[in-house]
Give the backbone structure.
Amino acid sequence: MAGGLVSIANLGRDRRPGLAPGPGMVLGTGLLLGVLSAVLVLAGTSAIDRNAFASMRQRGIVLARILAIASSGESQERAGAERLKYLLDQVMGDGEMVHAEIVDREGVLVAEAGVAGIRPVYATRGLPLAPSDRADRIAGLGGEPLYLFTFPIDGPGLRQAPPVKTAADSAPGPERLPRPTSGMIADSVLGPRPAGAAPRGRPAMGWESGPHAAPATGSLGDVRIAFAAAPVDEARRAFASQGALLGVLVVLSGMILAHALARRLVLRSDLGLAAIAAGPAAGHAGRPTVAPGGAGEISSIGHSIEALGERIEAAVLRARDESRQMGDVMRGIEASTIAVLSGSASQEGSVQRAVASAESVTRSLRNIVGSVSGLSASSEETTSSILAMVATIEEVDGHADGLSMSVEDTAATTEELVVSIKEIDRNVEMLNRFVAETSEAMARMEQVIEQVERNAGDSKAITELVAENAEKGMRAVLLTIEGMDGIYGSVAQARQVIESVGRKGQEIGLILNVIQEVTEQTNLLALNAAIIAAQAGEHGRGFAVVAEEIRQLAERTASSAKEIENLIGSFQSETGRAVDAMHEGTRRVEGGSERSREAGRALKEILESARRSSVRVGEIVAATREQARGSQAVGLAVEKVRELAGQIKKATTEQTLGSEQIMSAVENMREMSGHVKRATAEQTRGSRSMTHAIGNVSGMIATIQRSVSEQAEASEQVLKGLAGIATSLAANLAAAQRLKESLEALRSRD
C-alpha cells in the first residue's frame, strides 16, 4: 500500500502539467460565446446591409435630381449634348454608379457615360422612380444585378404633372416619404416602391420608341442612372465573413480561457492529493491523521487513492489527447487570424471606396456651388439689364417730352401758315378787283389815257405786292414743308422708340421665364433640403426651417413674377396701340407734307405769274404811248391776269383746306404724345417694381448659395469621419496582427 502511495506521489510530482478535464464547462462557454457572436454578426450584417443600400439609394436620388436640374437649362443641340456628356463624366466617379444617360422627350439618347459594355434596360419612363429595398433590382443586359433611377427633366415654364398613386403611397415603414403639396415636385413616387408592388415592365431587349416609351407630357426628357448591386452584396458578405471569423476567434479564445481556468483548479486538487499520498510513504506519520480503529479506514483510503490514481492517469491521457487537439485548434485560430487580417484589408478597401464615393459627392456639391455662383452672376447680369432697361424707359420718357414740345411748335407754325394763306386770299381778292377795274379802264382807254397810265402804275405796284406776298407765301410753305418733315422724323423716331420698347417688353417676358424657372428650381432645392432635414431627424430641424423659408421666398418670387408678367402684358398692349397710332400719324403727316408741296408749287406758279403780270403791267405802262397799237395786247394781258387770279384763288382755297387738315393732324399728334407720355410714366413705375423684385430674387439666390456651401462643408465633415473610420480599421488590422503574433508565440511555448 505504501508502494502504491509512493507511486501516486511520484505521479503527482512527475506528470507534465496539461489541460484540465472540464469539457462541460468549456463546451458551455464556447456555445454561449458562439450564440452571442452569431447574434452580433447577424445584427451587424443587417445594419451594414441597410446602411449600404440606404446610402446608395440616397446618392442615386440626389444625383438624379441634380442632373435633371442641370439638364433643364441645357439645349439639346450639339453644344448642349457635349456639355451634358461632360456633366455625366464628372459625376460618374469610381463608386457604385456604372451607367448614366440623358434622353429627350422622344426617348432618343442625348448623352451617355459609364462602364463600357454595361447598358441597362429602362422600361418605365416619364416617372421619377427609385428602388425601395435590396430586392427591388433588375438584371442588366450582361446579367449583372442593377438598381435603376429615373427622373424627368422639366422644361422652362412647364410644371410636372401630378404622379399616379402607387402601392408605395400606402406602404408603412420608415422609408415612406410624405406626399408633396400642390406646385411641388412629387418625391413620393421617386421612392419607396415595395418589393410586393407590381413589377416594372421590361422589354425583351434594346431600346423602345414610340408613345409608350417617351417621357410624360410636360417634360423635356429623362435622366437615367444605374448603380451596381454587387458593392452592396460585397459589403454584406465581407462583414458577414469577417464577423464570422471574429466570432470563431472569440469562441476559441473563450474556450481556451475556460479550459485554462479548469486546468488550474484541477491541478491544485491533484497536487493536494499527491501531497496527502506522499506523506505516509515518506514516514511523515503526523500528516495524515487517522482516528482510532483507523486500519480499516486507512485501507479504504488507500483503495480510494488507488482509484483516484487510476482516474488521474486516465485524465492525463485525455489531457494529452486534448493537448494535441488544442494544437490543431491553435493552428485553426492562426488560420482564422490570417483570414481576419485579409478581411480587415478588404474592409479597409471598402472604406477607401466609401471615401472615394464621399469625395465624389463632395465634388458634385462643389459643382453645385459653382452652378449656384453662375446663377448668382446671371442674376446680377439680369439686374444690370433691367437697370439699363429702366434707363432706356426714362430716356423714352424724355423723348416723349421732346415730342410734345415739337408738336406744340408744329401747331404754332401751322397757325402762322393759316394766317399767311388767309392774307394771300385777301390779296387775290384785291387782284381780282384790280383786274375788273383794268377791264373797265381798257374800255375807256381811248378817252382817258392818263387814267390808264395811273391805273397801269397802280397795277404794277399791286403786281409787285402780289409777287411779294407770293414770295412770303412760298417761304411760309417751305417752312411748313420743313416743319412737316421734322414732324415726320419725330413721329418715325417715336415709332421706332415705341417698337423698341415693345421688343424690350418681350425680352422682359423672356427674363421673367428665366426667373420663374429659377423660382421652380429654388423650390426644388428647398424641397431637397427639407427631405434631407427630415432624414436627419432632430439634428436637421433648424435646416428644415431654413428650407421652409426658402420655399416661401420662392413662392413669393413666383407671385411677383406673375404680377410683373401681367404688367408687361398690359404694357405691350398699350405699346401696340401706340405703334398703330404712330403709323396713322405718319400717314397723315405724309399727306400733309404732300399737300404743302402742292401748295408750294402753286405759290411758285403764283410768283411766276405775278412776275409775268408785273412785266405785262410794265408793258402796259410802256404801251400807253402806243395805245392805239397795243390795246388788243393789253386786253389779252388783262384776260391772262384774270385767269391767273382764278388759279391763285383756287390754290389758296385748296391750301386753306390742307392747312385745316394739318391742324387736325397736329391735334391728333398732340393727343397721342400725351398718351405716350402717360404710358412711359406707367412703364417707369413698373420697371422700378421689377427692379425691386429682381433684388429680392438676388437675395434668395445668395441664401441658396450659402445653404449649398453649408452642405459642402457637411460633406467635408462626412469625409473626415470616413477617414477616421479608415484609421480605426488600420488600428484593428494592427491589433489582429498582434493577435496573430501572440498565437504564434503561444504555440511555440506549447
